[in-house]
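Hi C.,

You asked whether I'd gotten around to modeling the 434-residue construct. I have! Everything is below, sequence then structure, no commentary in between.
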Amino acid sequence: MASSDSTGVHILTKRLVTLLLFLALLAVPGASQSPRPRADEKEKSPLEISATQFPTEQGDSVRTMIFTQIPMDRIVFVKSETDFLAAYELSVFAVNKEDMVRGTRIWREEVIESEFKNTQSKDKYHISNTEIVLAPGEYELVASLVDADNRKRYTTREKLSVTAFPLDQLTVGDALILSKRPGATAQLGDLFPYVGNRIADSADSFYVYYVVRNPGGTTLQVPLEYTLGTKDDTTAATSRSVITLEGVLSPQVLSLSTSELKGREYELKLKLPLEAEELQIIVPIYVTWAGFTGLIDDLEEAIEQARYVATRAQLQQMRKAPIEGKREAFLAFWRGLDPTPETPRNEIMDQYYKRVAYANAHFRSFQAGWETDMGMVHIIYGPPDDIERHPFDVYQKPYQIWYYYDKGWQFVFVDINMFGDYRLVSPLYPGRSF
């Protein structure tokens, strides 16, 4: 049994970690700030882009719908007499492997909001769309947004593989995940999907839009099967029905409920089992829980990853909570650290799991990146201001020194086993002893 002294040291240590982490996270980005660029960490562009391919009547080209999404707090709004107005210019280029532009769209978007809080929201987005007809091949989509007020530019890139649709048989294009059922006469340009297929669990339902190409153009009755399951093959929903195809291009809409979706990542399989062939669409779907950062995919793992800020008792409480109460126990813990509890976004949770994701991507060795010593220091203190690397010094094992100039701290990591598993050999809490 642990002594009362060791228990006291553990509690003191954990409280200190909590305080240090809290102060460190608040110092990096606030509710309306952007993270300060530091060594080995670059801010991801807030502009997102996705593309969906649909067949054309001719069949030898592909109709590519391109959607862009920008958080409302990243564009500048100006107050008018009654509303808040913003505008930005968008350009999208489709570049082939020979660096030749095969499609260009440039246009202007205007945004009107009646409530100020929406203009500052990180959780609300403005979505734009355009379309480019492309021949089959490999492309890179390059999207650039320029704010009309401050001329700030955001750029993002996405690989795109355009595949030809068969000319003489039934084919089906990609699927769009929509928040609203489209009208009977809706055109592709009228559709605004969940970019990235991320669906909030607060929504009652979502809609799957796809287009079937029937080269004969005759009216057909075709069977449809769908299965919605989790990544571990647990089935959440399944159904069989019959759809009607009319004309060469036949848009279809499938409605699905979110009420039973308790996981985070799903896979939707749409099948049209015909006599001579089987058409299939596989769509990844991500359900985002209200109050959670989008960086959390596994609740059990997220609880374990909170070890650098939670006490042993808090971890045990979250681990032992019943399945139906585990989510609320996790949120209750992070609400206790939320610097702005009056807003829907928990900034400290967001920044913490952003650091966890970075650690997993950059510090993995024999363990997950977040469990390594480098991952631990990065999560607690954030990225260093500078890194001094010594991979090949004579008579020395590889080592690194991380500098935090604004705090006057440094951490030394040594690759003790010479396998890239760097261990912390300096104190975790500089200038303090227990």
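If it helps when you're writing up: Confidence is low (pLDDT under 50) at residues 1-12, 26-41.

Thanks,
B.
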